[in-house]
Amino acid sequence: MNQVFVLDTRCKPLTPCHPARARALLKNGKAAVFRRIPFTIVLKTAIPDAVVKPLTVKIDPGSKITGLALAEGNGRIVFGAELEHRGTAIKARLDSRRTSRRLRRHRKTRYRAARFNNRMRTEGWLPPSLQHRVETTMTWVNRFRQWANIEGIAVERVKFDMQLMQNPEISGVEYQQGTLQGYSVREYLLEKWGRKCAYCATENVPLQVEHVKARANGGSNNVSNLTLACEPCNSKKGTKDIAVFLQKKPDVLKRIMAQIKKPLTDAAAVNTTRNKLFTELLKTGLPVETGTGAQTKFNRTRLNYPKAHWIDAACVGDSATTVTLNPELKPLLIKATGHGTRQMVSMDKYGFPRTQAKSGKMVNGIQTGDLVKIIQPKGKYVGRYVARVSSIKTVNQYLSIPVNGVPVGFPSKLATLIQKADGYAYA
User: Fold this and answer.
1) Is the pTM of this model over 0.85?
2) Contacts with 324 (C-beta within 8 Å, 6 or more apart), sequence order
3) What is the pLDDT of residues 342-361, one digit of tens each?
């Protein structure tokens, strides 16, 4: 269980404490709840001689999920979290908007001039889906600085060398003109194929790098010709053609061939944002330690910790030579949800409005995205619910929350606000 953040009477960060200690302070009236998620308390009595331990924010950047951990100077992990980005959703919305505008320009309606020709990109510009990854990571670094005494940052800066994976024979001037930092092809294959055998889907066994088209038959070492296989499958396949080897498993063959052609999208996203994230971290004024992906894996394997994003974050850099953590700790799961949309109406696939203009999204001081507690005394959904508000109907003063994955409407008078919306969902 993560430790609880503690603030003094002036809302300055103190050393995080054990949840049992926080419960005792709250029960005795010596503290009050400052924030529900992540749980933070504020003391009611000043402690002039309090000793505040310095902490380090450790970051394992990822394309979809970024691992976060807070470590003491002796390597003890006091807090772990996994931040899920919404870069894919941002790209999908921008694609939809672009399509609608293009269709509108070709219809026999008022012409909408293209404005993208008049815009210039600033130095260091990133696409919104990638800039989002940098900004959400920085948001949580700054939040941790508000709730804890952060005196250092460690980030995994070197991840994938896509040139080397696409062309293993690259060398000399050609290589110097590209990305110099490397990341083992094996580790990339482990992530690409889900850490299991491509042929039989066996997990938690030693996996071997397998050539889809055998070297004896002219196959190359390019990453597009590599996969992972357990020892029995690798031996059984040998130099056979994959179509012959899997002729009785057409579904597996189709899946493998589709996976082989999968582009290096995640690798490109990490490569593109790593330098921008490092630059933004330097602007905090804190010392920033960097590490490689291979170093992170070496530390984790040497300490015999399982694979997880927050554990990888804890094992980043030279400071991770000694890391003490509980592998069974459940990290805080943070999902970026955004702050709603500015789009006034929804459109069909032809770009025509299909809904009415949106009404207000607040009722009785509660808005979309707020975390609320609802106690329903009677009816079909009698019980107690704690969830984020998914939608609001201001006409009849109703709000909807997900119940078993299905949105259910409740009267707003039954809702008690727990935490205001901040653009993230927690679990």
Assistant:
1) no
2) 74, 75, 76, 77
3) 777 777 777 677 777 666 67
